[in-house]
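for the writeup, i need someone to sanity check this before i put it in the appendix. the sequnce is what the collaborator sent (i think, or maybe the updated version? ugh). structure was predicted straight from it, no edits. if anything looks off just tell me and ill rerun, i have time this weekend
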Amino acid sequence: MTTTNQRQPLFNLCGGHAALDFVNSLDHRCGARAPVERLTDYAALLRFALESRLLDARRARQLAQAPPAAAERAVRSARELREALAAALYARLEGRSPPPAALRTLESHLYRAARHRQLHWARGARGGALSWDRGRFEARAELPVWLLAQSAGELLMSETAERVRACDADTCRWLFLDTSRNHTRRWCDMKVCGNRMKARRFQARHPA
């Protein structure tokens, strides 16, 4: 199994939310070009979770030692979650109901994420408080998948979901959170898709 210190393509976290960047980890999802898989292996999954701040470096190093079979299952599970999430989000953007199969898959992942946590009591100045943590499940290979499922569920069931947009570039369509003042953001990354589309429009107006 590859480890987290091996070089992997850097993830472009322009989506503004871990769940959206997760969907974008399958590049060229829309358009004529063949899709490019960024979650190539377990090391890539750990790197994504680390860069998205869902995992810290110490936990990522520990998980990198997961048995190969468990690591492979986690990658398959992550991709399954990602595609169900993508189906639900793109359907919402198009004004359609999410496919029933995608909803059932999301339901299953959200259930597993909730089941693999435990209540933790933390003492404090006023006696203490209860909170959820991963506790005894933190060393399991599927921890990144559960954290991603939790992030996805929080987004889908919040008002923030209304600000999810797809890049206007028809060859991109990456998802992002529109936090602009007037909610008019059009591009996933102005330096990439925005400039590219501006150049195309300029060329169309000024043919050689």
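The radius of gyration is 19 Å. Confidence is low (pLDDT under 50) at residues 1-6, 198-206.
thx in advance!!
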